């Protein structure tokens, strides 16, 4: 009889616990998916396809710079995931980009920001390429063209002492 009471008590406890967990889960909404965050916060400038053609980029808006085309793989390859995390978190000015892009660090969690970065990588179908970053910096005039390499080892001319006169 005690075994039956113990089993019944355990079953009742499990039932109460599962109901409590279910109620707790119902109270906490699931975190929004990256695509939902993109559609809600980013499309105004970057457009629904991420091509930089959002409503804020209309002739009437007269933005001083065009929002970045996130589908341009050649352009987006210059940004590391960490560059994008910094830009989304702190705004465009932090990475020497347009200060018009606002910081979203107080809106999104770091996990949501990383999910947005993954979404942008899907849009551009690209990965970070350090050479792309170097090319973009050269095109923007932030790096000088490569210096020609010397043909051989430099020859040093010995300094000759003058004889006392």
Number of strands: 0
**What's the CATH class of the domain at 31-139, please?**
Mainly Alpha
Strand content: under 5%
Element-level helix/strand string? HHHHHH
Overall average pLDDT: 81
User: What structural class do the secondary elements suggest?
Assistant: mainly alpha
CATH fold title of the domain at 31-139: Cytochrome Bc1 Complex, Chain D, domain 2
Low-confidence stretches: 11-17, 19-25, 147-152
CATH architecture term of the domain at 31-139: Orthogonal Bundle
Oligomeric state as shown = single chain
Question: In summary, what is this structure?
Answer:
This protein is an all-alpha fold. It is 47% helix and 0% strand.
3D architecture notes:
The chain has 165 residues and is mainly α. It has a domain at 31-139: Cytochrome c-like domain (Cytochrome Bc1 Complex, Chain D, domain 2, Orthogonal Bundle). 47% of the residues lie in helices and 0% in strands.
């Amino acid at each position: 009889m005690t075994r039956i009471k113990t089993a019944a008590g355990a079953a009742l406890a499990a039932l109460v616990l599962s109901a409590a967990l279910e109620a707790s889960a119902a109270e906490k909404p699931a975190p929004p998916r990256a695509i939902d965050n993109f559609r809600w916060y980013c499309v105004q400038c970057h457009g629904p396809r991420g091509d930089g053609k959002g409503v804020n980029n209309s002739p009437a808006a007269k933005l001083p710079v065009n929002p970045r085309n996130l589908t341009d793989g050649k352009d987006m390859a210059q940004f590391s995931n960490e560059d994008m995390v910094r830009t989304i978190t702190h705004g465009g000015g932090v990475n020497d980009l347009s200060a018009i892009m606002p910081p979203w660090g107080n809106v999104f969690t770091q996990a949501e920001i990383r999910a947005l970065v993954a979404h942008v990588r899907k849009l551009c179908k690209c990965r970070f390429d350090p050479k792309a970053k170097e090319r973009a910096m050269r095109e923007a005039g932030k790096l000088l063209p490569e210096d020609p390499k010397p043909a051989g080892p430099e020859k040093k001319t010995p300094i000759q002492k003058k004889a006392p006169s």
